[in-house]
Amino acid sequence: MQIIINSKLFIRSRMNSKKNETIATKWFEAFNEHNLEKLLSLYHNDAKHFSPKLKIRKPETNGFVNGKNALREWWQDSFNRLPTLRYTPTSLTANNSAVFMEYLRKVDGEPDLLVAEILEIENNLIIASRVYHG
After folding, report:
1. Structural domain that includes position 87
2. Alpha helix (H) ranges present in 50-89?
């Protein structure tokens, strides 16, 4: 049996994976700096976001927000309430359209929380993100 790989497609896919991994790294940097503008610059204007924490804090959203303005409001509230909030990445797995991230959510005075998040990426911008934790 012979396997033929389209080398141009493979190289393009690996390049996109690396770009997406870089976006995830920039995401962690911006988040941990609590730099909203830097963080939002990684997102498409119409990006969608789901978080169980959002569902608890704002039940009317059912855990979803849409667009940069809603993301800004959500994160600004989080940064204001939790000034020591930071994420410590433990694992990043990227392909040509997404990044799967695992990290520890750390807040002084609270137990660490293991979190998984998926960033869906198109044209070098995050178009959707979904957070999962226990």
Report:
1. 8-132
2. 52-57, 68-81
